[in-house]
Amino acid sequence: MYFAIKHLHVTCVVLSALGFLLRGYWMISGSALLKSLPARVMPHIVDSALLLSAIALAVMIRQYPFEAGWVTAKVIGLVAYILLGTVALKRGRTRAQRVSAFAAAIAVYAWIVSVALTKNVAGYLAAVV
């Protein structure tokens, strides 16, 4: 069961990233598709499956936020990613703010994935230092 849930989780990670990149492209290009019903609904479906699978995996491997540093780092990164994503796709007042928030959100997303792969709070930053 663990591998099925992990596979679902990784699939949702990829779908979530692709969806965010596509919506970011639409934001940058000024496309009306950003406001379409699928663009507004699908991220919630994918991200809900992603979150539920993450919780299931945490329970299965007994690694919880505030007990396992790398899991705590991922949760904090997730909050930062969500906040940056909302600025990038909705709340940014200027195009420059939205593009900057979009780039920062992508960097945070990559860091979250690197933390997951390395099980290290520093993620890919550990290799740089």
UniProtKB/TrEMBL annotation:
Entry GO CC: plasma membrane
UniProt keyword list: Membrane, Transmembrane, Transmembrane helix
Transmembrane intervals: 6-25, 70-89, 101-127
InterPro entries listed in its UniProt record: SirB (IPR007360)
UniProt key word Transmembrane helix: yes
Top-level division of the source organism's lineage: Bacteria
Coiled coil: none
The protein, known as: Invasion gene expression up-regulator SirB
